[in-house]
Amino acid sequence: MAQELLVAICAAMIAVAVLVVGDRIRPKSWRQNSDESSSHLALDLAKTIFTAVLAFVFVACWNQNQNAYNHTITESKGLVDTHLAIHALPAPDRDRIHDKVIAYTDQVLTEEWPLMERERRLSPNTEKTLNSLRAAVIAVQSEDPTVIEARTRALTGIDRVTQARHDRAIDVVRNLPQFLYIALCFGAVLVLLNPVLTGMLVTRRSVAMTALLGVIIGSALLAIHDLERPFSGVLGVPTDAFRYAQSQYEPSSDSPITTAE
Fold first, then answer.
1. Which of 137, 146, 176 is nearest to 56 (CA)?
2. Integer-rounded Cα radius of gyration of the chain
């Protein structure tokens, strides 16, 4: 942050030095009678830079939001793969692991998701459930090739869940660089001050257009704020991937999952 501020101050000093020195060595015929052109140049440049930074930040936040959504899809696929793999396990192990898969998915939706929205962190209890799920699969011992293959597939699915969960933990705490926020706010202020600095007359039309300008800028900044926090806000990542996984756990007429008596 200090480096960016120092560069901005140095650039301002260089620009002023160029103006003062250049004014002394340029022909008098080049001089204008007012400084209106300088204000227009500065404001036009500020609007251009603000628009460019706004577009860059919006695209970056949108990509971050989509990556977070893709990580939830990968995680839910790993859960479904684990659920399908355990069908070949012996009944006691199968039912125990089946219950843990359901418990983990339920905890993500009911406990961890609200925690990500409010505090931007994952739930330690949900992580313990995932570790318990892995331990239950590892504990399965058999010399049957079918069981061994099912155990391997289940562990592969859990590995996918663990990796995707790690990515989700990064997504939930990731922030934009502070200097980009400062550039956005500074540019927004300059754009909003543009009517005043250019001497715009106060009429019904100018008031309406200025209000519309404020709505556009405010909405854009709010959208960026929501996109930067992918698990909260109106534009937050939906829970449909985990909801779909839940629907795959429901027993069907041909499912080998049975309830242990």
1. 176
2. 29
Number of DSSP helices (H) and strands (E) in the chain, helices first: 9, 0
φ, ψ at 122 (rounded to 5°)? -90, 165
Q: Cβ distance 121 to 111 under 8 Å?
A: no
pLDDT at 131 over 70: yes
**pTM of the prediction?**
0.74
- Name the helix (H) or strand (E) containing 203: none
Residue range 99-114, pLDDT digits in tens:
999 999 999 999 999 9
If DSSP codes are grouped into helix, strand and coil, which group holds residue 5?
helix
Give the amino acid at 98: H
Q: What is the 3-state secondary structure (H, E, C) of 71-125?
A: HHHHHHHHHHHHHHHHHHCCHHHHHHHHHHHHHHHHHHHHHHHHHHHHHCCCCHH
Q: What stretch of H or E contains 213?
A: helix 204-228
Report which DSSP code applies to 238.
P
| Per-residue pLDDT reduced to its tens digit, 87-99 | 888 888 999 999 9
Q: Which residues contact 77 (CB under 8 A, 6 or more apart)?
A: 160, 245
